[in-house]
Design goal:
Blueprint lengths: L3 H25 L15 E5 L11 E6 L3 E3 L2 H4 L1 E3 L7 E5 L2 E5 L9 E5 L4 E3 L10 E5 L7 E9 L10 E6 L13 E4 L5 E7 L2 E9 L15 E4 L4 E3 L8 E3 L9 E6 L5 E5 L6 E7 L8 E4 L5 E5 L7 E8 L2 E9 L13 E2 L5 E2 L5 E4 L4 E4 L4 E5 L2 E3 L3 E4 L6 E5 L7 E6 L4 E3 L8 E7 L5 E9 L7 E6 L5 E7 L3 E9 L1 E9 L21 E10 L3 E8 L6
Parallel strand pairs: 10-17, 26-35, 36-42
Antiparallel strand pairs: 1-2, 2-6, 3-8, 4-7, 5-6, 7-9, 10-13, 11-12, 11-14, 14-15, 14-16, 18-19, 19-22, 20-23, 21-22, 23-24, 25-27, 27-32, 28-34, 29-30, 29-33, 31-32, 33-35, 36-39, 37-38, 37-40, 40-41
């Protein structure tokens, strides 16, 4: 007789095994799914004693958050106003932040603790912005406020994450030397508000620190700055105190970077835009003969090629407007070797040549000679010889290929090895460039009838692309026409500079001298200039904003 009990257990075990296999099999093909990224900073649940406590006499403040947090750069970010000789001690206890006051407190005084960006969550580093704690040792809390907006003086765009601070007039001398105690940061719209201020007279500043900053101390070499020239008397809530930030010009000339390149050239970067720069090799003087010097468009960078590299060391004098600014020493080893690769770049855009330009070839070294016999031009695969190879009259790094280019033709420019010879007998390798002529129908013209608000002043009308790069500038001082002609169709915007010193460029401000940057006005609506189109528009320049 069959053992029914044994069969029952066998079937039962089989069912269990099958179920487990199905479970683990299903589980094995599942991919763990991550949830949405945490973008919320820790939330304050409580403050003990309560924020805005009057007649404060505690020695410790406890702030409790809804999640675990980290303290970051608290020695830079945290401050207490008024300052204390013994800085409060910050301690992290689970989800609580303890602030131990180490110094005695003044009577009838409002204190503000600013935490800056020191408190952030553990996982994603989301910062608790503008966290502060206020208390008073007397029966009243200072309740005055100052608010406004910070914009970029040149782009006219709001600036976020800018530190705005005030200094009591008697402490204005600490600007650029010590960290301020009363500060806040702007939001995404560039707005700020300073609360719990004491009645008094203050100077107002804004500082946008470069990456790697964070100490809230203005550094001219790297930071942008804004200021209100006249002191502000705060005896009531004040609104609309707006600031424009700008990058100051360096007050004193300095070399930011210098190096002897592996191709034998010398590169020097300045901290200023020089007006009339000159480079001279003062020692040994014979090396100065036959040198090549190329300055950048803004005259803030120089590149030097010396024909004689037999020196052990060389002295390079940097001059501007006839005055020697600095002398540099460069040394080289007698066994040093250099690599010179004569690459050839061009002004083609997407394989198209601008019909209003000649084909331009640019080189990384001064070119000593060109050999047209090693240059072949094909037009629809047919060899053409009626082209010219012309050296730029000023820029020794450029050559032009001149030819009556035609529409709907395909061109192949073949530059054989040695077609161009640079200094030190360096030669190019084989290069072929294929292109066609862009149709003139793809270009546009805009005529502006400009009306100025004051004919005794001067203005600069600038065409900008969508990235606000300058395409073309026109100085104007009277009602006149400005023609933006033969430019690629596309979207442009207009900017007007109120050129107070009539030098044709935008000038920045200076904190020490107390002058603001030159004002700008934007016609911010993008102008969509159509291809093969000529149009005429009015441009009425408003009076400069106050």
């Amino acid at each position: 007789m069959p053992n029914l009990k044994a069969q029952y257990f066998t079937l039962k075990n089989l069912a269990v095994v099958t179920t487990l296999l199905l479970f683990f099999g299903c589980a094995s093909i599942q991919t763990p799914q991550g949830g949405p990224k945490d973008t919320k900073p820790p939330k304050v649940l409580s403050m003990t004693p309560k924020n805005q406590t009057r007649n404060f006499n505690a020695k410790k403040i406890v702030i409790e958050f809804d999640e675990y947090f980290n303290l970051k750069d608290e020695f830079k970010e945290f401050s207490i106003s008024p300052d204390q000789e013994k800085t409060p001690e910050l301690k992290k206890r689970q989800k609580r932040l303890e602030i131990n006051l180490k110094d005695s407190l003044e009577k009838n005084t409002t204190y503000t603790l600013n935490f800056g960006k020191s408190v952030a969550d553990v996982n994603e580093g989301n910062v608790v912005k503008n966290l502060s704690y206020v208390f008073s040792t007397g029966p009243e809390i200072d309740s005055l406020s100052l608010s406004g907006k910070v914009i970029n003086s040149l782009t006219d765009e709001p600036e976020k994450e800018v530190t705005v601070f005030i200094l009591p007039l008697e402490r204005d001398t600490i600007f650029g030397k010590k960290r301020p105690s009363i500060y806040t940061t702007t939001d995404s719209a560039g707005t700020y508000k300073l609360n719990n201020l004491r009645k008094g007279t203050y100077k107002v500043y804004a500082v946008k620190e470069s990456s790697g900053g964070g100490d809230k101390i203005y550094q001219q070499i790297s930071d942008e700055v804004g200021f209100v020239k006249e002191p502000i008397v705060i005896d009531k809530n004040i609104e609309n105190v707006d600031l424009q930030i700008f990058k100051e010009l360096a007050p004193e000339f300095r070399v930011l970077d210098r190096k002897l390149n592996n191709d034998g050239s010398i590169s020097i970067i300045f901290n200023q835009q020089l007006k009339s720069p000159k480079i001279t090799i003062t020692d040994p003087p014979a090396v100065d003969v036959g040198k090549f010097v190329h300055f950048s468009k803004n005259n803030d960078t120089a590149k030097i090629w010396l024909k004689d590299l037999s020196f052990d060391s060389v002295k390079v004098a940097i001059q501007d407007q006839g005055k020697v600014l600095q002398t540099l020493n460069f040394t080289r080893g007698k066994k040093d070797t250099y690599t010179r690769d004569v690459t050839i770049s061009d002004n083609l855009l997407g394989g198209k040549l601008n019909p209003f330009q000649q084909l331009t070839l640019s080189f990384p070294f001064p070119i000593a000679a060109a050999d047209p016999s090693k240059i072949t031009l094909l037009e629809d695969s047919v060899k053409r010889t009626a082209f010219e190879v012309v050296k730029d009259s000023v820029d020794f790094l450029k050559y032009y290929i001149k030819y009556p280019w035609k529409n709907k033709r395909t061109y192949d420019l073949k530059l054989a090895a040695g077609a161009f010879t640079a200094i030190f007998n360096a030669k190019n390798k084989d290069v072929t460039k294929r292109f066609s002529l862009e149709s003139s129908d793809a270009y546009t013209t805009l005529v502006l009838n400009v009306t100025v608000p004051d004919t005794s002043k001067r203005y600069v009308v600038q065409f900008l692309n969508e990235k606000k790069d300058i395409i073309k500038s026109f100085p104007v001082s009277k009602n006149s026409k400005v023609t933006f002609s033969k430019y690629p169709a596309g979207k442009y915007m207009l900017r007007v500079i109120y050129d107070d010193n009539k030098n044709g460029i935008w000038d920045t401000g200076n904190v020490k001298e107390g002058y603001q940057p030159e004002k700008v006005w934007y016609l911010k609506a993008l102008m969509d200039l159509k291809p093969n189109w000529e149009r005429e528009d009015p441009l009425v320049i408003p009076a400069p904003p106050k």
